[in-house]
Design a protein that fits this description.
With 511 residues, the chain is of the alpha/beta class. Among the domains are: 142 residues, Rossmann fold (3-Layer(aba) Sandwich); 113 residues, Putative Large Serine Recombinase, Chain B, Domain 2 (Hect, E3 ligase catalytic domain fold, Alpha-Beta Complex), CATH 3.90.1750. Helices cover 53% and strands 13% of the residues. A 4-stranded parallel β-sheet has the order 2-1-3-4, with helices on both faces. The protein has a 3-stranded antiparallel β-sheet with strand order 10-11-12. The longest helix is centred in the last third of the chain and has 48 residues.
Length: 511
């Protein structure tokens, strides 16, 4: 009976192991699939094959190309023909996913040697074949892993040698690890130099690159690679597998004492660098706060390392395109900032007059607040009287139950609301005179306080002083918008006025 499939594609694959053990060649699979297509009157429109590639994953060039071809030409393809399921994949999940995709595209999967089809039995057989292929693969992997572990326990490395060594073979063709005559001396030197504690890991990286050390791909040594090298125990004759260490038969490149010194320095440096980065941030209270006068971008900061290892802190503009292109010493800009604070601090005569105004405003506000509180208390007492009268009327049976409940609930609700409002208007003992003196004493000592404050305190003070971020032209600070008290002082100074009774300043009342 002629099959309903008219056009199809063929996929075949062979791994190196298949060719060595079973002799299942690409040509045999291709011939078998073509013979099946001819017998079933299927026109083969395209063929795909992977040569010497494992089926553990679907990451195979021709398989991916075939899947893409099916997705694009699904209307012109009726089936995909393979020699066996394990040619397609040796993983149950991959088989299920490929089969699902083909079914979705309306394409049938055909195995020339296995009875798989769209019937329940056919689907079951397909799943069994895929599971069997995966089982076979898993058993082989387990055997290989066990064999490799046994070799490692015997002191033989089964993988690619790390930089400084080479994979080679002995006179009797046995796999061995030998020193790389070109790279080994440079790597040994790197360990010895780093062990002195005079160089950072980055400096060692630059030096070995300068000495011509290159990685396997012909590229210079990266930061990641130099870190792997310095921490790799392979160089002292130890192999680490799954957290366990094994003695190796290869030549040691580095003495254990030197290696341990490197690890101690590396750990110490790492902790120190982490602390330094944290401390570096706190070294620069004006970072991201002060604005560059040339481009309007915030200043950033950095620590420069001098020729002899000295550390020098600087501020600079954040923008790479800033026309100023200047860096300025931390001490210079922060001294300028402190000096600027000196210029914006009000004089005692101003503070004295301003204090009198604050006290007058406070008294008026306190009086109004007290009157409002008394009004609220009076109204609550009235409502409670109404509630008592309502209860009395109920006791004398002058109100029906429904009317009483409705009126009682309404009164109770209003009392709760008004008592809540009253609780927000607290009249506490508060010495405004002492409070104002405390604030003004703080204002008088702002420059000294900022200079000796912690990083967090400096940030808070800056936010309190400046309503807008200050601008710096690398010589002096320009006049910014300040907080209300300091802004009034500045405005009065600009108009050459003396403070008599400024209006519009209302201190925040205690809550």
């Amino acid at each position: 009976m002629e099959t309903q499939f008219k056009k199809g594609i063929i996929y075949y694959r062979v791994s190196t192991e298949d060719q060595a053990q079973f002799g299942v060649s690409l040509e045999q699979q291709k011939k078998n699939c073509l013979s099946y297509a001819e017998s079933n009157h299927i026109e083969v429109v395209k063929m795909f094959h992977d040569d010497g590639v494992s089926a553990k994953t679907t990451d195979r060039p021709s398989l991916q190309e075939m899947i893409e071809y099916c997705s694009q030409k699904s209307n012109a393809i009726d089936c995909v023909i393979v020699y066996k399921i394990d040619r397609l994949t040796r993983n149950v999940n991959d088989y299920t996913n490929i089969l699902f995709l083909l079914n979705k595209l309306g394409i049938r999967l055909i195995s020339t040697t296995e009875a798989i089809d769209s019937t329940p039995i056919g689907k079951f057989i397909g799943n069994v074949m895929a599971a069997n292929a995966q089982l076979d693969n898993d058993i082989k992997s387990q055997r290989v892993s066990a064999c490799m572990l046994e070799k490692i326990e015997q002191g033989h490395w089964c993988f690619k040698a790390p930089l400084g060594y080479l994979n080679s073979r002995s006179e009797i063709n046995k796999k061995i690890i030998i020193l790389d005559e070109k790279r080994a001396p440079v790597i040994k030197w790197a360990f010895e130099e780093y062990a002195t504690g005079l160089h950072t890991l980055e400096e060692i990286r630059q030096k070995v690159n300068g000495r011509g050390l290159i990685g396997w791909k012909g590229k210079e040594v990266s930061s990641q690679l130099i870190s792997k090298i310095i921490t790799n125990k392979f160089y002292i004759g130890l192999m680490t597998i799954n957290g366990k260490e094994y003695e190796h038969s290869h030549d040691k490149l580095v003495e254990k004492e030197i290696f341990n010194k490197c690890q101690n320095i590396l750990k110490g440096r790492t902790r120190g660098e982490n602390i330094s980065r944290s401390q570096a941030k706190e070294l620069f209270p004006l970072r991201h706060f002060v604005i560059c006068a040339y481009c309007g971008r915030p200043l950033t900061a950095y620590i420069s390392t001098g020729r002899w290892g000295g550390k020098y802190p600087y501020y600079r503009c954040y923008s790479k395109n800033c026309p100023s292109k200047k860096s300025i010493a931390k001490n210079k800009i922060e001294t300028d900032f402190k000096n600027y604070l000196e210029t914006i601090i009000p004089k005692d005569s101003f503070l004295k007059a301003f204090k009198a105004t604050i006290l007058d405003v406070w008294k008026d506000e306190y009086k109004n607040l007290n009157q409002d509180r008394q009004n609220k208390i009076k109204r609550i007492e009235e409502l409670k009287e109404e509630k008592l009268k309502l209860i009395d009327m109920k006791k004398r049976d002058l109100l029906p139950d429904e009317d009483f409940k409705e009126a009682f609930d309404k009164l109770k609700s209003e009392i709760d609301v008004r008592e809540g409002d009253l609780s927000e208007v607290k009249l506490e003992e508060f010495n405004i005179d002492e409070a104002v003196d405390y604030v003004f004493d703080f204002i008088r000592t702002l420059p000294e306080y900022w200079e000796h404050a912690t990083f967090e305190q400096q940030i808070k003070v800056q936010g309190l002083i400046f309503a807008e971020k200050p601008v710096y032209d690398y010589i002096k600070f320009q006049t910014p918008k300040l907080s209300p008290i300091l802004q009034i002082k500045k405005d009065l100074a600009l108009t050459n006025s003396s403070l008599v009774a400024p209006t519009g300043i209302e201190p925040v009342l205690p809550h």
